[in-house]
Each structure stands twice: as structure tokens, then as C-alpha cells.
Specification:
The protein is built from two helices and no strands. By secondary structure, it is mostly helical. The mean pLDDT is 83.
Length: 58
């Protein structure tokens, strides 16, 4: 790994060179957890609707 002095990094940015952004794994994990939670709640809601409808039919 090559470590450049701060003034060299600044010049690189001015010339249009940019470093790759570091991935935000915490954000990705949170989004995945929220999606999983929403899917679980949707399943629960459908299951409850189905249980409410079945006794009425009998």
C-alpha cells in the first residue's frame, strides 16, 4: 500500500482522481434487517387474515 502525503492526495482530487468509497456495511445490514422484518410482518398479517376467515366459513 502506498501512502501519499496529504498535499499529493489533494492534488489528485483536483485533477479528478478519486478513491473508491468504502462500503457502508452497517447501512446494508440495517436495510436487510428491515426488509426481513417487513416480510415477516406481512406473513403474520396474511396468516391472521386466513385464520379469521376460516371459522366464519364453517
Amino acid at each position: 500500500m502506498v501512502v501519499l502525503p496529504s498535499h499529493s492526495r489533494r492534488n489528485m482530487r483536483r485533477k479528478g482522481y478519486t478513491m473508491a468509497k468504502k462500503p457502508n456495511y452497517g447501512y446494508e445490514k440495517r436495510q436487510k434487517e428491515l426488509a426481513k422484518k417487513a416480510k415477516k410482518e406481512e406473513k403474520k398479517r396474511k396468516r391472521e387474515e386466513k385464520l379469521q376467515q376460516s371459522p366464519e366459513e364453517e
